[in-house]
Design goal:
alpha/beta, two-stranded antiparallel sheet, 11 strands, binds cytidine-5'-triphosphate, binds magnesium ion
């Protein structure tokens, strides 16, 4: 089966602040989205890359060099949440993808993905029937707050066995499409924040493949400095 990348890039970056959506903010010399886009477009094992942007997006066209246009297509079908954007993107690909084709969903807000991480995911899932995701074992001591405005810790949550999810998350096209459709029909699309959650709702168990701290998500303004540090450093 072939491998395709699907990059949701239709968010507004509310937590980041700023005048333009965070995926278009300059980071280590180029718009954030371009980092991940170039990695997937340049990867020999990725057949083609699709980027989901909002219908009103006025930035993406300026990013698309002639070389990128050979390897990347733009889907102007972004929705109100990340999962809507992914689901709409999958809907738009119904004619182009086969059921067994793999889809690697990757956040535009994770500029630190690289060829080695993509290879690690592909290799780990080559014989898999469900799929899986990059993730990192949790290192922090975790507290459950009591929900008060000035919260107190109720208890410590054992971190053994806990992982922090990253992207890419890779599943067979038909399986992911079905999982998201089912989540939508059950009105649960809004409660999930990644693709693996929808697969879990089907009772399946996505494989956890070790990611990298380099592959952090840029959520808050301060995350950009750390992302730049990694992007400017030596590359694996
Ligand atoms: N995303 C999307 N469509 C949405 C919301 C998010 O395609 N309606 C994309 C973002 O562009 C990003 C990825 O999903 O690449 C992860 O989402 P997140 O980090 O939450 O980005 P934003 O939603 O833009 O940020 P915020 O939640 O702070 O507004
Ligand atoms: Mg968001």
């Amino acid at each position: 089966a072939r491998h395709f990348a699907l990059i949701p890039a239709a968010g507004v970056g509310a937590r980041m602040g700023g005048q333009i959506p965070k995926q278009y903010l300059p980071l280590a010399g180029q718009p954030m989205l371009l980092h991940a886009l170039q990695r997937f477009a340049a990867h020999a094992r990725i057949a083609h890359t699709f980027v989901v942007v909002s219908a009103e997006d006025g930035w993406i066209d300026a990013l698309m060099t002639p070389a990128l246009r050979q390897r990347v297509s733009i889907l102007r079908v972004g929705g109100p949440t990340r999962q809507d954007s992914v689901f709409n993107g999958l809907n738009a690909l119904r004619e182009q993808l086969a059921d067994a084709d793999w889809v690697l969903v990757h956040d535009a807000a994770r500029p630190g993905v690289d060829a080695a991480l993509i290879d690690r995911l592909l290799d780990a899932l080559a014989q898999d029937e469900v799929g899986g995701l990059l993730a990192l074992p949790v290192v922090d001591t975790l507290k459950r707050g009591d929900g008060a405005s000035s919260p107190r810790s109720q208890q410590t949550v054992p971190r053994a066995g806990l992982w922090a999810a990253q992207t890419p998350q890779m599943f067979p096209y038909a399986l992911l499409h079905r999982a998201l459709r089912q989540a939508q029909e059950q009105g649960r699309l809004g409660e999930i924040t990644d693709d693996a959650s929808a697969i879990e709702m089907l009772g399946l168990r996505p494989r956890l493949v070790e990611g990298s701290p380099r592959n952090l998500k840029v959520t808050l303004a301060q995350d950009a400095a750390l992302a730049e540090f990694f992007l400017k450093g030596p590359h694996p």
